[in-house]
Every structure is written in C-alpha cells, then in structure tokens.
Amino acid sequence: MRRDFRPSEVDAAFALLNSYETTPFKERPARVRLAALKCAEGDLAKLKCELQEALVDFRDVIIAAEYPSYGELTAQSQKPSPEALEESIREDWKQYSEWLSR
Known about the structure:
By secondary structure, the chain is an all-alpha fold. The protein has five helices and no strands.
C-alpha cells in the first residue's frame, strides 16, 4: 500500500480494501484485494472501481491482475496454441512475482 499510494491516500486505500471484507465473496477476500491493488496502479479512484467490479464478478479482477497475457490470448477469436498458452502463463507469473517483490 505504502509503495503504491501517496502518504495522504494510504488510509483511504486501506479503508477501501477493508470494505471488501464485508462483501458476499468472503472466501478469497485477500486474493481479490491484492488483485485490485495491483490493477489500481496507485490510483485511488481506480482502486474503488476495481473493488466495485469485483462485487460483480471477482474473477475479472483476478484475471486482470494475475493472468493478463493469458486473458488477452484466450479472448482472441483464434484458438491459441498450447505452447502460446504455456508461455503466457510463464510471462504472467513473472510479472506478478516482480510486482509483488518490488
């Protein structure tokens, strides 16, 4: 939180993330909150939008955060090769790991 948001926004960002705890999708709130945080890219308004989107379908936020290349590849009209899918999964894991550890 503190690395992505300005000091004056950290409390508001924490409040937004904590509000997700009270939603119907309590089985994976930490994963959804982390995904929303990544997708928000330090933008408080975007964080709010990501969490609102998660209320509709939390999987959309998780895919955008954890599987962006894979999601784009599978959304294409042409079926991707198994090799392309495997490569996209490796790329996605690498970028997600880098984001987590920065």
